[in-house]
Amino acid sequence: MLxxxxxxxxxxxxxxxxxxxxxxxxxxxxxxxxxEVKKMVQQTFLTKNHLTFVVSAPGSAGxxxxxxxxxxxxxxxxxxxxxxFGGRMAEIADRCGATVHKVEVEWGKIITPAMVxxxxxxxxxxxxxxxxxxxxxxxxxxPLEEISDLIHNAGGLLMVDAVTSYCGVELRVDxxxxxxxxxxxxxNLSAPPGLSPVSFSNRAVKVLDNRKTKVQSWFLDMSLVKNxxxxxxxxxxxxxxxxxxxxLREALSIVLEEGLENRWKRHQAVHEYMKGQLEGLxxxxxxxxxxRLPNLNAVFLPKGVNEAQLRSTLLHEYNIEVGGGLxxxxxxxxxxxxxxxxCTKNHVNxxxxxxxxxx
Amino acid sequence: MLxxxxxxxxxxxxxxxxxxxxxxxxxxxxxxxxxEVKKMVQQTFLTKNHLTFVVSAPGSAGxxxxxxxxxxxxxxxxxxxxxxFGGRMAEIADRCGATVHKVEVEWGKIITPAMVxxxxxxxxxxxxxxxxxxxxxxxxxxPLEEISDLIHNAGGLLMVDAVTSYCGVELRVDxxxxxxxxxxxxxNLSAPPGLSPVSFSNRAVKVLDNRKTKVQSWFLDMSLVKNxxxxxxxxxxxxxxxxxxxxLREALSIVLEEGLENRWKRHQAVHEYMKGQLEGLxxxxxxxxxxRLPNLNAVFLPKGVNEAQLRSTLLHEYNIEVGGGLxxxxxxxxxxxxxxxxCTKNHVNxxxxxxxxxx
Lengths: 359, 359
What we know:
Chain A is of the alpha/beta class.
């Protein structure tokens, strides 16, 4: 039972899709599958963006895709950091040769519009602002709409990490005016890890079209990849991971059969079901209620508990995986994921039952 | 029937492995699987290199991994180009800020030691020389040993693209003193596309350790990835594609069960079996016999044949995929792959039988 920060349990239909015999990646039938996947990624991102496709590598490569394509040496950008993944974005932006203005806050807190306003005073014309919608390292759910207005009023782009929010909590790419977004497949989508859906607004496409320098990564260069995924005549770029694309198609179909909003509601409902029981056992949430992700529960353990030992017992004796803390929270918190197929009352009952026995 | 330049048909055991339920990518059991895979990659590369692992993305990302880690801005390198993939290496090396000295020859010919000697006169102290062992765009099998001596005598590293040779034709990383090598999974290994095994010699590791600048790609930065794949305590970097690693393990096991040298012999034997029959039908090989790859047969079609139409009929009526030509050879040649599980007399008989009917 995968109840960590990802991967989550995959649906049997998705696992079965993985074992479908291969076809050529330029076969007209596979091109049709890529088109279907693209359309379903648009539907699940709630966007009409034409430049929507899937990077042939995990979420971290999706992050790098957004940054290396949008930033050029000498550009200024604002990166918001309240956990591991904001820090990673700053690291990559720096490797792009951009000047990085960091908006930093204690892990477990949100970035406020006031903090962004202060950053915009120091850096009034950033090329982009990057922010994490759902911080996998802390369980914070970041409000985006006000910050979206602030960066757009300053003439910059809004780039969002949606790895842990996509298909699990409300996320509206077009309504919220997100210009560049990436996610992963192994969280609320419950497909195997290895691919990263991404989408770029028309504003972002203009920035791509007006680049002065070549993108530093050939593999992630959108001007090349887009002709493979979305060109009128598909041009060979690399070889897409055929089996993983089959699985992604199946996982996206399952999301749309359930209904995107129903899926958001399910994650919230199972979270409510689990929360009281965890608190009853002495667990305490890291994040204040208002900004808490339903699907990634970052909790301090009851006093006196050896977290590593308990986590290991859960894994080896109960076959349940939960995640440990990262960075400053290593050894202090657990990250309990209820994502996609792992988001059921049965999962919660198994975990809580085991904890009752062990504590 | 996949008889193009890749992917090849996957073994049912490999497909079945893809549908194994997921476990966490930091689960001790998965770490054990990574260790097994690493060991089998060493065995199939015929190397003892400690820095041997698998990039979580297709072969093109393996190519980029080698170049971005070994090259820094201002470095000089020699890139050998006799097809698409040499050209791609030069393109990526340029994006690393390196000065690229190209050794170019007509597509379908090999790079000779004499050509490399001339390049070394213009550029006597290159950081590396990069060359393609098996050019997927032309079917050329490139001898490496003399060129290896030349670049090492000049104090540089030998980097090799082995995407289409790995597990299909003789390839000896340690004996041939190859310093950096990458390959793919979807050719003679017959696993699904999406991963890229790579290996670095101790000479290459010294170069990595002495870098003055950060690697421009965070996702492909070996100094980070190595602690995920090979560190004493595994450090989270990205989320490995768990299912694809299962499949890779199974495919590598199948290679070692057959025996690496037996597998090389099988590719040669099936090639001999096919060659005479294709020539009997009026196909002509692009590459001279001495430098012909057994597993990637680049052939001109019999006169007067509409190649695109014939290829489409083969695909739609016989369910057989063969590859078209790339670049200057588009519309002129076919690339017939007999790789891994697609390298059987049955495949050849199906193809030749269909061609006899259609021509």
